[in-house]
Specification:
The protein is an all-beta fold. It is about 0% helix and about 50% strand. The radius of gyration is 13 Å and the shape is globular.
Amino acid sequence: QVQLVESGGGLVQAGGSLRLSCAASGFTFRSYTMAWFRQAPGKEREFVAAMSWNEGSASYTDSVKGRFTISRDNAKNTVYLQMDSLKPEDTAVYFCAGSRGPVVYINKALYDAWGQGTQVTVSS
């Protein structure tokens, strides 16, 4: 079955870096647009970044532009999120998501595959 497993979360000081990974199985990874979302306590799950199936198009929410980089390795069925210059407001559970096809969506309702999430905590 479709499975997405995130890893790489943890506790880091403000200004530090983390690299999240999401290993995919059970579907044709290269046919899916992959994305990262995050959800802070008491808040809605929000879009962070996404990359199309052929690495040709990437999108970021404004608050992470210039600090976060999404990438994917289709040979390893893995998508990454490099997070630099982390801020306390980046603290959240980060989720990996997949959507069949080449279109990069911001709307979480258009993603049909989800991981269980990994906690990222940034201390001030």
